[in-house]
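Severity: low
Component: inverse-folding endpoint
Summary: output formatting inconsistent between runs
Steps to reproduce: submit the following structure tokens with default settings.
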């Protein structure tokens, strides 16, 4: 059964095609939302949207591939499936360069589409798990005092206690005390886990919106 929290966003200027795909996916248990063109999708988009996009190559205004590039520029990371009635190697290459999950030529059967969507959803689930994990780590880091944050930042750069002490103008013993308190607050067992948490809590560039 498809994940209920994920949506398939269908973008096609042909109403019959939009409705056909939406009906097929709806009967299979997928949640869908449809748009007649890329501009309508961009006007409605929300950062919290999760799922994948199915877009026709040829659309009025921005094409499907151009929309794909625009969303990457906007750092909206929904997986993309390109569909077309006019197979073209160059367009397909452009789509895959922008990390499209699949490029399907019409008419495609339901199994092809379901397989592409399921692949896209798997990628999206992984992204969401990583995002949520970073948020949890960031919340843990908020428990630290300003001095503890300074110690952690230096530790994350690979500095040892003596080096951190010299940088902050405190004793190595005080650094070790701070490290112990930091690990207790964050629930980690060693410095390696501490560094991993500090790095993981920083979002990648494509999710800084």
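Observed output (run 2 of 3):
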């Amino acid at each position: 059964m498809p994940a209920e929290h994920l949506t398939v966003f269908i973008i096609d200027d042909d109403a019959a095609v939009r409705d056909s795909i939406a009906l097929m996916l709806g009967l299979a248990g997928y949640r869908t939302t449809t748009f007649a063109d890329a501009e309508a999708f961009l006007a409605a988009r929300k950062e919290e949207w999760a799922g994948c996009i199915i877009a026709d190559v040829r659309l009025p205004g921005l094409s499907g591939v151009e929309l794909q590039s625009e969303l990457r520029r906007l750092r909206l990371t929904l997986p993309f499936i390109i569909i077309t009635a006019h197979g073209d190697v160059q367009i397909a290459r452009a789509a895959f360069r922008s990390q499209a999950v699949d490029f399907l030529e019409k008419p495609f059967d339901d199994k092809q589409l379901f397989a592409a969507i399921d692949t896209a959803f798997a990628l999206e689930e992984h992204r969401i798990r990583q995002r949520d994990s970073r948020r949890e780590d960031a919340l843990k880091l908020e428990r630290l005092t300003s001095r503890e944050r300074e110690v952690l930042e230096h530790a994350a750069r690979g500095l040892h206690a003596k080096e951190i002490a010299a940088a902050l103008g405190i004793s190595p013993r005080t650094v070790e005390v701070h490290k112990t308190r930091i690990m207790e607050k964050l629930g980690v067992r060693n410095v390696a886990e501490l560094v991993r948490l500090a790095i993981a809590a920083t979002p990648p560039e494509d999710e800084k919106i």
